[in-house]
Batch of 4 targets.
Target 1
Amino acid sequence: MTVPGADYRKSAKKGTISSRWQLLADCEAGKVSDYCGRMLIFTFSIRIDRNMTLKQFFSAAVIFICLPLAAFGAQKTWSLSSPDGRIVTEVRTGDGLRYSVSRDGVALLTPSEISMTFDDGTMFGGTSDKVRKVRRGAHDVKGIPAMNYKKACVDDVYNFLTLEFKGYNVEFRAFDNGVAYRFVSTAKSGEFTVTDELTEFNFAQDWTAWVPYVKDADGKTFKQQFVNSFENTYEHIHLSQMDPAKLAFLPITVDAADGVKIVITESDLLGYPGMFLNGKGGKELKSVRAPYPIGLRPNGVYVYQDMDYADYIAKVEAGQKFPWTVIGITQDAKSLMDMDLVWQLATPADENMDWSWVKPGKVAWDWWNDWNLYGVDFRAGINTETYKYYIDFAAAHGIEYIIMDEGWAQRAKANLFLINPDINLEELVAYANGKNVGIILWASYNSIVKNPEKAMSHYAGMGFKGFKIDFINRDDQQAVKFCERMAKIAAENHLLIDFHGVYKPAGIQRTYPNVLNFEGVAGLEQLKWSPEGYDEVTYDVTIPFVRMVAGPMDYTQGAMRNAVKGNYHPVGSEAMSQGTRCRQLAEYAVFEAPLTMLCDSPSNYMAEPECTEFIADFPTVWEETVPVCGEIGEYVAVARRSGGTWYVGALTNWDARDLTLDLNFIGGGNMTVFQDGINADRAARDYKKTSAKIPADGMVKIHMAPGGGWVAKITR
């Protein structure tokens, strides 16, 4: 008898037969893959005694033959490579559904299980599920227009593998800079209750990672951690050091072998709860998703944070396309800033809708500076006179919007139609329209969820331009559906959206281009209350490689009060930044934000006209973005182009740093430079403005003070 892979050997000892079978299975055309061969090894040995009867021999032989066939006959492995062939994903079926990922032959993720469980006991990724059909192919579409993004066009190039099972498909896509997968329901009708979804990330080694835990998670259960603002600094730790009692929100970036970086996040998160990650003390991470909230009760004025949970995570309809799990992979840190996977995998905007009314821009913001004006002849505060002053400031500097943050409607009632008696909305919107400045209104989740259709229709009809929606603080199915609903209603009323107190961007910004920005970042507001030991500077040079991979960040930069490390302290009414003045200017080039705040008081800006003029001139969307250099937690430099003008920004951590920036790709030009002054290590506001040309070799040498920055505007 001939069996593929059989190795028959006789021992030197007479009367002893030893046999080893290797059962190797491959899906397509019966070919054997090396990977599958390694995974499906079965060894069975029998010793035939001299006194063994013929009947005993044949009984043993039947067992020997049948056992491995029964155990492994259903296992199959499919391989999917990226267009450049460097990234390979192996997908295994037959004993559940597992995937692994390698790059240049080096394992990054070893076999990791994925599955979805329903309340009737059925599963996607079950051990008995059989592949009915396999589809493979390549997708190559260049130059897709991208609205309100870090580049004008995106190339969408990948290879795909779709495995079709009874009732569902699993889709894999392999890009040159990552891998993504999702489940898709193929049922024709009905509603399904998802009780759990499992995604494993079994890393090949115990690498280090930048981990954002849920803030203040100590002593809290997972159910208590599900309610959070998605704001925290990062712990740089080994995977095995992750606290099993804490949830980490996405994205997470892992530092793998030979400088390779792996980032985990999601895309096309619509109508389904978002993913947290949890470590169990090894090099493996597992997904955790919030159960569906029931019995929501207000906790305070602004949020629903007091609730019970159902015994399921989501109810979905037949045909549901579940979110993409995204595993971005780059050779170095800087390339993370040029990753488009979240945008590529998101559902495109409705082509039948008119989006031309969507206008990104800068915003004069009131809350961070506590409405703190000086040199005026009226009492500053949440009143009509103060907001007219903000409008005048915006108009004078070409700033497109102001925000009226919390307090324009009466706080205690969480009612958007109970207006602060010191505010005349009709007068303000007419005044702003006359100066070509738009007004965006703040609303808490608690206030707008009551009747968003009424609120948005009413205020759009008055002439307001958008809503900043705050204190969502969850990413369960209900919260995710809320965000989609807000985006849709806002779009119907030609209103912009800025989500605050919210989970990371996960593709809705492409689906609804009126969603311009997201918080989900421990931005500058943290310095209004964080203690002296809080480190925003290191955070600033970490987020471009982690959080910003997911999408834009409403970090709210632009502070004119700046403090060196030893001088920072929290002040709510006259807040300050950590690091230098030039750091604040450079963040307008480094951070991605189609709706960008000027956080400080108009009075402070007018006292600093040189800096104010510079940041007011910044674009907020770009035709081209080029990462220049960077190392996570150490430094970063980015170049962005709008029309024929380039802006280059650089930041360092608390170490003074000299860098040589390779700007050859710009092709020369005249630079207007803001650089840290010679005494910026003592007086953080010290800066120097200079003019220079890009050297003939394109190499620009820069120096940054501790906590410093450098920024240039380059024209030709």
Note: Residues 54-72 form the longest helix (19 residues).
Target 2
Amino acid sequence: MENRNDRKSYYKGLLTGVILCVLMIGVLALSGCFTKTSAASSGSQTTGTGDAVEASGSGSSDDMTDISNRYSEIEQKLNKLHAVLDKYYLDVSDDSDITQDDMVEGIYKGYVDALNEPYTVYYTKDEYEQLQESTSGKYSGIGVVVSQNKETGVITVVRPFEGSPGAEAGILKDDILYKVAGKEVTGVDVTEVVTWIKGEEGSTVSIEVYRPSEDKYLTFEVERKTIEIPMVTSKMLDSNIGYVAVYEFEETTADQFNQAIDELTAQGMKGLIIDLRDNPGGLVNSATAILDRILPKDQLLVYTVDKNDKKQEEYTKDDDTIDVPISVLINGNSASASEIVSGCLQDYGKAKLVGTTSFGKGIVQYVLPLGDGSAIKLTSAKYYTPNGRNIHGTGIDPDEEVRKEYEIRRQADKEEREELLKLRREPDITKDGRKIEIYANIGNMDDLNSVLYYGAAGIGLLRSEFQYLGRENYPRENELFLAYKKIAETMGEKLTVIRTADLGADKQAEYLNIPDETNPIMGNRGIRLCLDRKRMFKAQLRAIFRASAYGNLALMYPMISSEEEMDEIEEIIREVKSGLDEKGILYKHIKTGIMIETPAAVMISRELARRVDFLSLGTNDLSQYTLAMDRQNPLLRKKYNDHHPAVLRMIQMVIEAGHAENRRVCICGELAADTALTEEFLRMGVDCLSVVPACILPVRKALRQVDLSGDDKGA
């Protein structure tokens, strides 16, 4: 009781003090009381920062004054919240990992997040240190450039640098970034995501992508290295046309640009193409330095206007000019500083803009250090082209657009999608009336809406690893329970199959302390690791059984290869149920299943089927184990064939073994979404398919076109 009371007093004092402190810091930061600021530097699309400047002017603090007058009200409300939590909140976990820093930083972040403005971000000390990495074109990371769709929040790889760790790992252009270090990135400010990717040299970061060209989710463990990348590349094209590609606007960019121009001029350059496609921006002074080389002296390049209508103008400073015809290439990923350059040249008629409309980021952010190692990045001004254009939200239209083919493709895609959407509420029935249910595979809570939107029969695979990755310690039982409870309540009567944690191999976190293995894909992973760490396993099982009272849940075990493993699991299940019974905690009888992922499991699939209620074929791992090929190895990409006859025969064997024991058999993973195999799987007699939400409708379409009449292999 002493510890509980101590913690009570600690949190009461902590939270009261923190609220008052954060309000004071907010007053100082937003009223311009800091004497020095520094520019944010990032290789992200949303970077729009300028040089270090001296803060001047008092700024308006009316809003902050209003808040300061509410200190007493805030403190009273906080005390009430604390009293309610202390009196009624039941902490059913065995431990608490909340720290003082967590509480403090959480309040700071919440205060800034309340602005609901994507470019204004609070950075902890560690985050700010990462953000401050030099903009010299040298950093520790994986060597890929990413961009973010401003409407969807989706982050896409636009360029992996040749020879970089990311490129060598197999990350490709147009890969969609799904998770970094176990954390979902869609909708997160791309500047922050870049800080997650960067890190100490020699450390590793888990990068999960979706590859549209292959309809696959791929995970890469990439070792961070010191990346030295050229910000500018150049070459001479036919007819003495110089070509200069500018990748980002960093400290060295202007010098590299000038060097390229000097070399091309010496070679007799008669025309110039400046390629700003996929350039996310960067430092404003780098952009203006390049414009200074192109335009004559005393030309207005860009001006900014802050909240107090203070105008700041930038002019060229020397007489150097480029006196050849210039074309500038832009696209939807050309942002920020790229738009300053292209907009300025367009205003003066100095260059023709070719391509598609640019990103449309016409605002500037500055990073203000808060004196304790933390910082706030905030939107401080709008910028305008020389002709007075602010392009925020609209972008810059090129002089010559090459959109015809794109528009044709876009219209075709739109029509196809509209046709597919008509199938959202249609049943999963073949032409001859056979019902083959389509379930969804998900790896996080955010996918729940997609499952319901596309009309899935339920969740055929919940990858529970999302609760274990991208964190510093084990999740508590109650944290697991609340997530499973929410899923169960959201899905209602629809079945949700929770696969127990498949950790190890490419799914690791530092706190797990998994020893280095010669061959981790074949190592201590999945159920093997869970059985070695029974405390972790029991906590997850207790959470699942507790949540079963709120919906229709099922359990599935990964990487099973023997009946002895099932013996251990069943004993642990008995212990878990007994403990819940002793505490009077309600739970339902839930069905159990095995994910068949190894050739060993295939060969004893009939024996395994007798131990559980259903079987699910994990085709991703089954394929690579059968072929003895790492499916993520870029060197094997052309040789890896998951349509191999051996893989398909194993699938057939498991279906027949499961049906012999009157068990349902589902196909899960990438092959389940392969519409070229849909009819073949149905003729094998599969009972259900489980695919990523985006593939539900295409598979449903393929399924509804199959006629199995006369086929004797149905379930």
Note: Confidence is low (pLDDT under 50) at residues 1-62, 402-406.
Target 3
Amino acid sequence: MFGRMMVSALALTGVAYAQDGTTQAPVLPDCTPQPTCSTVTPTSSADRVGYEAAYFAQYNPQTALDMVRQVPGFSLDGGEDRRGFSGAVGNLLIDGVRPSSKSQGVEGMLQRIPASQVVRLEVLRGAAVAGDASGQAILLNVVRTPTAGSGVYEAGFELTSRGVPAPRGELSYSGRNGNVEYTLAGSIFSQYRDLPGWRLFSDEPGDIYTGRAETPSPRDFREATVNGSIAFPLWGGRFSTNAQINAWRFNADNDFYFFDALDNPDGALIQDYRERRKGYELGANYDRDIGPWSLGIIGLINRGRYESFEDDLFLDGAGALDGDFYQDIVQDSGESIARFTLSRPLGQRHRIEFGAEGAFNSLDQQLEFAGSFAPTPGSVPNINVLVEEERAEVFASHTWRPSDVWSIETRLNWETSTLTFSGDTNQVVDLAFWKPSLQLTRTFAGNNQLRFRVYRDVSQLDFGDFVSAVATADALLAGGNPDLVPQTDWRAELGADLRFPGGAALSLTLTQHQISDVTDVVPITAINDNGTPLDTSDDFPFTFDAPGNLGDGEATSLDVNFSTPISFIEGGRLTVSGYLWDTEVTDPLTNQPRIFSFRPESQIEVVFRQDLPDLRFAWQLNIFKQGEFQAYRFNEIDTSEEGPWVDLTFETTALPHGMKLTAIAANVLDGTIYRDRRFFNEDPPGPVTNLGRNGINTSRDYRQREFAQAPWFILQLSGTF
């Protein structure tokens, strides 16, 4: 979620490193067979910091996730939400191999590995992260030991002001039978929360109060997941496969009770909203050595169906029916990926890699409107659309260590794709991009490291941006735009990982972005078949908002992560992480510079943890705050802000059979979500024109919502067997 981070006292942790930056013998993963370890081959201890299992004993871990959360200098990253494997890698390796799953999540994978199976955790930097997993500044490799078998269990519940316990739990078992490794796991998760709040309405200018709305908003969420994996030697290498089946459901009563300026009932919106999602994933990975070459093959199939149902009743001030609206959405999605890589060392200081990836992706949406308040047939474009993408990528990289303290990685990717639209929109779009990258890394005494990277990033188009839907409660039409093109971003990145005596660490990344085709919100005017604007009244054409491209923009971002032990507090450690973004793009309506929509300007998280091993007790304080972000729609500026969210966690392992009891008091300071919508309209008197944000500020909708009555509580019992 934030930048890179945290490092501990190296002299006290069993970390192998070179005080003066000189080369030491690399520490290779202890795994069998060797092909599973060949993906990442370090050339110097400057690129590898290892933490033996004994280092984590002070935290009484039960799973690999418990251990990873305490690794100095590392922050777990699940990767970007992208189709294919390129760019969606994350920064986790297991026995030197990248997981061949996207839906399980890196935290879920680590949660299913018992701590007893972990030999060591290795933080890989510089030249050690080159190759197929490049794009990440830091990787973590979990090195496991062969075991006869062990399992992890967790059971608990969440209790909010509703007073009904929401159960959750997970059970997994990992074992080995000869050279065959296997894992089987299942989990359930539920939340029964309210999202209560209020809205204040006013006329501008002068902010004259005109009414309010009360929103109790009870909501329920339930999810069940079953997954498994198996790995075994095959044809001189190692083959592994994984599978997952997942289903979830979400129900909400998004009711709004309106009152006028005199606090008299002024109508209501009674909304029954439901979401359903089910799907499966199959993944496979094959690795082997062919002479000096290392071959890696990954395949994945992902299928899912998403359904949402909305049933709205509009009541007048007397409680009589004033109208209705129904919206049903069905989306079928699929992803199929095949990827292979070939890599080899060239002497002691060079490594090359070649690879290719092919993917087929699709989204098929069917949407139905009904009711007296339903949009006019044909007025909402792109509601029934099939989007299909054929994508291919080839890449090559070269890593060179000219000395023990320098590493240079050059990389070149070429990506091509064809998007085909059918249904309400019929068109074919061909895209192709070059994506070069150059990274220089310098290691200094004490294992401090500086890196400079310049590269081109090409965002992926979100298929959901091509289709339309209506958000009734917000009176918004989210229009689909098949003319959207990917945003491209030339980035110059300067990063540092600094380690100080006593175990403190500072990690920061400063990035300058030069962006083309900024993806944002743009006004769209509905068009008739004859090419003329679609009129919904005699006043002005029907204009709505949709994802679109604004042109060129620029941004500067700073990721900071600082961690330090607290010398005067036994077992205490403080971690501060966050980011800042400064963005600028020209607004398509006002022609004035503004910030990007939907990009928070800042975010910060502060964590204090104290571990008392002798008492087998630990406690932790988490504080999270997200700064403002805006959405610049055609006739409004929508501003949101969250927090602060404050959680208290207490853990003890002073229980029989090594069980751990965890108690969490969440949102103890009653954190809140704020939203301020300012609406603009034409400037009377005179002819009616549709000026949008070029007009005057006519009204305001200010709202405040909170997740259940604070605080709420989570209690869970976990252990291994």
Note: DSSP finds three helices and 36 strands in the chain.
Target 4
Amino acid sequence: MTVLSNMALNTMSERIAKQQTKPMRLALLLSKPNIASINEHLTTVDTHSVDGFALALLHACEHLSSTSNDMVNIGDRLWIMSGLIAAKNGIHAHAYINGIALSNNQTEAVTLALKHAKRLHAQPQIVALDGCYNFSASSDGNATDDAVTDPANDSRSESAPHVSAPHTNETAQTALTAMVNLVESIASRCIPTQDKANGQYWFSAFHQSRVAALCYPTASGVQAIILTQGRALIAAKPLISTQRLWLPLSAASLAQLHTKLMGLSSQLHSAINDISLLELIKTSLLDYQTDAPLALVLMAADRRALVQEVSAMMTIIATHQQHDANSHTPIEYKTPAGSCLYSAPLGHNGLSFVYPGVGTVYPNMLSQIGLVFPDLYAELENQGDMQSMLQTDFIYAADKNRAAQMSLSQLAIAGVGASYILTKLLQQEFAIEPKFALGYSMGEAAMWASLNVWQTPHSMIAATQNSSIFTQDISGELRCVRQQWQLADDENIVWNSFVTRASIDELAPHLANYPRAYIAIIQGDTCVVAGCENSCKALLKQAGKRGIAANRVTAMHTPAALNISESVRQFYQQPLVENLPSQLQFISAAETQPVVLTSQAIAKSIADTFCHQLNFTQLILNAREQGCRLFVEVGADRQTTTLIDKINAQSSNSVSAMAMAVNAKGGDDVTSLLKCLGQLIAHRVPMSLSPFIRSLDASINTLSQQAALADGSSLICYSETSLEGEPH
């Protein structure tokens, strides 16, 4: 190393060390604030120097530590000002710089920067640029190779070799771009990754802000910058876009719907660009009439596909008017894309929320919902620990097999969490209110937790995680089974459950031969047999039936669970909210009439369902007798939807009914949601269209700004969708 380079290293190190003697809270903005009283200090990034960005950023930190009423602009990409000045002027930051450090390796640099930021407790998302200034980040947002999630516990040598960055004109600009992208990730609550199209929501510990570290090599060593979240949220991902089209049409008759479709078809052919296409959809939403007798929804992946959906819908209506009108056969039309029309809508009076049981969760479930509805997630995060609620260490792990390793309690918690979030989404964003609610197995607990009945539903997370009911009694070592079978502590239990296409009448005659096998659940044309694995297999063989092993250990809905009935009742006896829902009837599998809304009655109904055989078929038939018509499954995947449709098809009740799901494993979360909302509209269920309008306005605005930018007009500004209460 030359004397000159030694001097450069010492100068950089000394300057950063000096900054580390002072607290640092610098507000980062993605667009220039319109505040005349603040002086803008322009800093150009020297793209001819490998340290161009590092020095520009260091200069900004030094300048703002010595002056009070300035902001520094770096490369027309970032605006930086004192956090105190930002607060005094009512400017909400997208992120903050809280720490800075320089070392000979990344691990040490991140640790020192966290120490400066007073965030040593945090496990930051790390974005690292290598020696060639390439972005390096894994699917879970943590940088690969030299990046670590927990610098304090990193096992690698502190003397890891440093690779100097090449002296190119691109390095400084790349580092600046990486900083801008990381601020965008923080402000959108999206885990930093190169694959922005498939980014995942960035969960944080309860009441803790998101923390990220940007690391990049300089001629003097590895520089690390600690960024923390601000209050401002940038625009959400679109609910409707040019790649996901959705629009309703309402009318007084089928003939009017056909006329509107003809007009829409003409307008689609006339739309000259994406902006005019989205404006056309917005017009349709604004013209939509909630009280119109009929409505249809069109859904497609692009303009060409939408034209085809319109044509197919016109054909269906025309054919019905020509051939089926006199027969009074209603139209029940639904396409794979999501378009739908029901000429005899079921209405909203029979709208029922159905909550699935344990085992519906899957890797990366609901991963896009928080990015499309950031305001909702921000509110829910302020209310409770969403990391625990969704068991994010398992559900969103890079290793997709981790979800399969979840315990019964973890599966239960995550299942309730998914139902809770989707319930709040339907109620708070779309103003959809059910008339009835019911649950499949432990879905009854999810029902009470989600629908504003329990006073402190979040307290149930830790309680479920730690309760012996879930960890030892009906799962794990199966203490209640051991008691039921009178086994010694050292006697082994091999438990399993099997789904079999068989009726209870086909299985019941053989039960006496296998006292350790039980029919746990009756559900349409299938049953769930549970108990001693060998006994269950022998029972099915004798009955001439095949079974699909669930490979899940739970003694719910078997006689063994009766041994802990009182414990379950006490566990679920929770304080209730003061203003209980008055227009909503809660239906339990354990009772023929709606549950009385008292803490004691709710706890008893859950315990009775939990500890006895579950006859889901009878539950649905009973619900239909009480008025349920539209069954909407509110949870991860589609556990009950197909079952309900089969039960409805076999029912002697002549009144129409149908089931649908808000979510589906293997599909896009937002697309599944839109398909469900489309069916609800077609069945004339009232809902708010405001989320669609807001999304369209944002998309149209973005496209307009991009067009202006292409024409050489003003730079794109980042719009704030909301201001989130800043965590501690």
Note: The first strand starts at residue 26 and ends at 29.
